[in-house]
Amino acid sequence: MRNTVKLTAAVLAAGALTFGLTACGSDKDSASGSSDYSGPLVVAASPTPHAEILDYIKDNLAKKAGLDLEVKEFTDYITPNTATEDGSVDANYFQNKPYLDDFNKKRGTHIVPVVTVHLEPLGLYSHKVKSVDALKSGATVAVPNDSVNEARALKLLAANGLITLKAGAGSEATPQDIAKNPRNLQFKEVEAAQTARSLDDVDAAVINGNYAISAGIKPAKDALVLESAKNSPYGNFLAVKKGNEKDPRVKKLAKLLTSPEVKKFIEDKYQGSVIPSF
């Protein structure tokens, strides 16, 4: 139970079904308000940096705090929320508020944030050019295909003068909301987890911080342009199904995630590529 469990995309569907069936008769169905808070706190997380941060806590801080922590790694942005909703896991740590709001609205889930921990700046990267000025007319740019991260990617490009978005383009903006595209950039919409792998096939790609780090990219050093952390709504947080916020295990983890020790760990390990939000 103390080892991190790594789940690949190939087994997620089967795992979710199994968990869902076992959860049906479980007290972890938080809607009842009679949850059983015994046993380890099982948290779904993206491998980098979320699971790494949780593993640091598990190995260095949890025992002293009286917390039995189990980390399950997921490589997609959907299963952590559906698993939290159906009780397969107790909590998750991988997402930001605009993404969660959109997910809850579209899927009818009831996930709520507990505490914000860090920001992973979104960046534009390329294997073919060294600056945004070198992007040629008609260049192909890969962007995440989920609505929130695609809008975030387009806003990054707009903030750096590559495109202009229509007035009022919000958190669900798509390439159809581009008002001006002076370089006639072409957009390739791919799953967020695939953006880093697309770098050899496109002229540039907008990549989420966690996927950039997982691919060996150093956002603070390698990005052509990088999202500003100032007043950002995209901080990543610990989240649970509504009703489980008072779980004493969740409270312990929330306190540890925003401790001075974790802040130092994030700053030392990620060197500006992941930024503490507390």
From TrEMBL:
Coiled coil: none annotated. It is found in: Membrane. Keywords: Lipoprotein, Membrane, Palmitate, Signal. SUPFAM superfamilies: Periplasmic binding protein-like II (SSF53850). Gene3D superfamilies: Periplasmic binding protein-like II. Residues 1-25 form the signal peptide. It comes from the Bacteria. Its main location: membrane. It is a lipid-anchor. Belongs to the nlpA lipoprotein family. This is Lipoprotein. It comes from Streptomyces hyaluromycini.
